[in-house]
Amino acid sequence: MAMQGNTSPCIEEVAKDGYDSNKFDDDGHPKRKGTWITASGHILTAVIGSGVLSLAWAIAQLGWIAGPIVLMLFSLITLYTSFLLTDCYRSPDPVHGTRNHTYRNMVKNILGGTQHHYCGLAQYINLIGASIGYTITAATSMVAIQRSNCYHKNGHDAVCTMPNYPYMIMFGIIEIILSQIPDFHELSWLSALAAIMSFGYATIGIGLSIAKVAGGSHARTSLTGVTIGVDVTSSEKLWNTFTALGNIAFAYSFSSVIVEIQDTLKSGKPENQVMKVAASTSVAVTTVFYMLCGMIGYAAFGNDAPGNFLTGFGFYEPFWLIDIGNIFIVVHLVGAYQVYTQPVFLLVENWCKERWPESSFMAKEHHIKIPLVGTYRMNPFRLIWRTLYVILSAVIAILLPFFNSIVGLLGALAFWPLTVYFPTKMYMVQSKVPKFSMRWTGLKLLSVFCLLISIVAAAGSIEGIIKELKVYKPF
Questions:
Q1: Any stretches that span the bilayer, and where are they (predicted)?
Q2: So what's the pLDDT on residue 346?
Q3: pLDDT at 4
Q4: Which CATH number belongs to the domain containing residue 439 in this structure?
């Protein structure tokens, strides 16, 4: 969720006084400067996120055999379909065709019809869901900081339970303030900070897991994961396995931003070839990182692995390091929330401006001078709409604060359409893959297989939400 999307869109500037190849690219945009190294960095920033926190739990549901196999399978599928997307960046020819600047634009130009609307729907469901999931995760980490200090002061057997909804409200207030920043590109500093934090807390989690294993931890593990009749019932084992698939899918979800990342590459070498190098490098690094988090986390916690390995208190000491890890999570999610919600804000605001162009309520901005900050551009509609959105996402998070089930559902909803269906469909159309050929059949089978994975992952996550709702009391 992965934090999925820590990249800011380019500010488009088009040559006005003729085409200058020294300053502008073939589409009139300023010369792009990206390389495979910068593109790899963007992908790593997008993919290494809060999804890593659930991997130890996911491996515990699958075991030593299926766990690494499923992680590797998702890695290979994501890499392969990202290759297909890179070949569609230019259309109708992957080397000399016209650039597609966004994922949705690519779907519109290659598939035509109304398919780009379905692509947009999938993208925005993912973005809206992420804002809810990030609210839950941030509040869980805030509670974990308070509980960590409580356990350190009163002992590991102390009763240190506390509600998380006050922290969701606190997180929402912070996001209401940050949401009033008018333009997406003004958040580049926040995105960079979020990326540093995500690597920080994931590294702390790995380090603590290694220390626990090295310290003689004898956690109970097995080849098949949690044991039926000991840890779970047979039905719980099945549903948890499905939810684990969604958690792993969420961790690998970065397809929705790969087109925008490719659009930053400088001209010269074919962009699709450069992007394939970047994708291979970043997915390889991500897979190693995820294997460490998942496998070492499972070795440390065993079948009792918590849903979130930094907030589930498999670790108690050093409490200050656990606090730092959770602070990193909160800071990361403060930034990630904005990266994911700004496109939603802009979609509604731009539509309203087009629908009511003469409305001063929609378009007029009031300039307010704030000491030590500068001039703030306040628009009444933006203030009300963004505030209501943050409040609504916080209310839903309070009503459904189930980390693993929500993460699994988000992963299931985004994985098939954005990572598999559209990439394979566009590639077959652009490359004119003959019907019923071996490649056509293989791509169709891959799409059907991944659709089935998404369906069972969504079913497992929904079952988990329903089960937890039966015993959950929000206040």
A1: 36-57, 64-85, 124-145, 165-181, 187-211, 277-299, 319-340, 383-400, 406-424, 445-466
A2: 84
A3: 42
A4: 1.20.1740.10
Give CA separation, 27 vs 20, 90, 194, 272, 457, in Å. 11, 11, 32, 17, 41
In a domain, 118, yes or no: yes
CB 415 within 8 A of CB 453: yes
User: Is the peptide bond prior to 92 cis by the omega test (within 30 degrees of 0)?
Assistant: yes
Contact at 8 Å (CB) between 194 and 332? yes
Which residues of the chain, if any, have pLDDT below 70? Answer: 1-21, 182-188, 190-191, 313-315, 372-376, 475
What is residue 17's DSSP assignment? S
Phi, psi of 60 (to 5 degrees): -60, -35
Residue 3 lies in a domain: no
Give the model confidence (pLDDT) of 381-405 as tens digits: 889 999 999 999 999 999 988 888 9
Residue 6 lies in a domain: no
Strands 374-378 and 366-370: antiparallel
Q: Which residues contact 412 (CB under 8 A, 6 or more apart)?
A: 245, 246, 249, 454, 455, 457, 458, 461
Q: Does residue 98 lie within any of the structural domains?
A: yes
Contact status, residue 408 vs residue 243, Cβ threshold 8 Å: yes
Separation of alpha carbons 141 and 323, rounded Å: 9
At CA 327, angle to CA 321 and CA 328, rounded to 5?
A: 90
**Based on the structure, what is the number of domains in the chain?**
1
Q: Return the closest-CA partner of residue 95 out of 261, 267, 255, 256.
A: 267
Place of tokens 């209401």: 176
Q: Which pLDDT score, from 0 to 100, does residue 11 have? A: 37
Residues near 139 by beta carbon (within 8 Å), at least 6 away in sequence: 164, 165, 167, 168, 170, 171, 397, 401
pLDDT, residue 8, reads 41
In which domain, by residue range, is 52 found? Answer: 36-335+392-471
Summarised one tens digit per residue, pLDDT across range 195-253 is: 788 888 888 988 988 988 888 777 889 999 999 998 899 999 999 999 999 999 988 87
Q: Which residue has the tokens 């071996």?
A: 438
Contact between 83 and 382 under an 8 Å Cβ cutoff? The reply is no
Model pLDDT, residue 464: 92
Alpha-carbon distance 181 to 417, whole Å?
31
